[in-house]
Amino acid sequence: MIIAVANQKGGVGKTTTSQALAAGLAVKGYRVLGIDLDPQGNFSTACGAENYNVQTIYEVMKRAASIQDAIQHTKGGYDVVPANIMLAGAEQELSQTGKEHRLKEAVAPVAGDYDFIVIDTPPSLGVLTVNAFTCATDILIPTTAGIFATAGISQLNETVTSVQKYCNPAVKVRGILFTRFNPRANISRQMKELAEQLGEYISAPIYKTYIRSAVVVEEAQANSQDIFDYANKSTVAEDYKAFIDEFLKGVNE
Ligand SMILES: Nc1ncnc2c1ncn2[C@@H]1O[C@H](COP(=O)(O)OP(=O)(O)O)[C@@H](O)[C@H]1O
Ligand SMILES: [Mg+2]
């Protein structure tokens, strides 16, 4: 299963969710590969991967390196293909026919080695995100409860529909995950209204688990550790565990 974690809005928890998903699935014994597809390289850094003077997803997508040469093993027990700012050039450089399929082609040789491949995407709906959707079997959309984040969901839905039409008919939105949730807010009313709104935009379920907001997330990332490694007893670690269980239940149904 190949999961693209996407939302064109920055700061909604894509990278945090990608890392928690990769780490949490690895803890359960699954073979996991995380792919950083954001030129900001936050996922690579958070995982403790090297992203300079090594082969990255940029070289792999440009066919200058094989994916095997770019895979790194993390202390979290999952593998990572890193990214750095060079990847920002991909938007212009991958202009040939078939550019949407570069990631899918690159991943193919190792796809069978992993139970789950998790792709962290940049905050845009450009060629990189389209590559992620073309490669993926499933899309996971993290979002915050802010109104600005929700307005973008319909735009995201258009990109998904377009990829389904031209590149990858089988890809589907697996679900929407609320992150950075303020536990002091009025959960039921705020979330109910939002869920109703989202339901109109995109025909995908909303996960029952919400990821609460807590400072340990930034601390863990600054320390290049995943949330389970850094603060396994924290509310956020508990929330991500509950989410992964809910996610796996959906996968196995
Ligand atoms: N549940 C959370 N609680 C507190 N801070 C969070 C949480 N999730 C993410 N953050 C912080 O919010 C910022 C944006 O999160 P990130 O995962 O990088 O979002 P994106 O990849 O969508 O831009 C980061 O500084 C991160 O540490
Ligand atoms: Mg990110």
TrEMBL record:
Catalytic activity: ATP + H2O = ADP + phosphate + H(+)
Chain ranges of the AAA domain: 2-172
Pfam families: AAA_31
Transmembrane segment boundaries: none
SUPFAM superfamilies (alphabetical): P-loop containing nucleoside triphosphate hydrolases
CDD domains: ParAB_family
Subunit structure: Dimerizes in the presence of ATP but not ADP; ATP-binding is required for double-stranded (ds)DNA-binding. Interacts with DnaA.
Membership in a protein family: Belongs to the ParA family.
Protein name per its UniProtKB record: Sporulation initiation inhibitor protein Soj
Organism: Dysosmobacter segnis
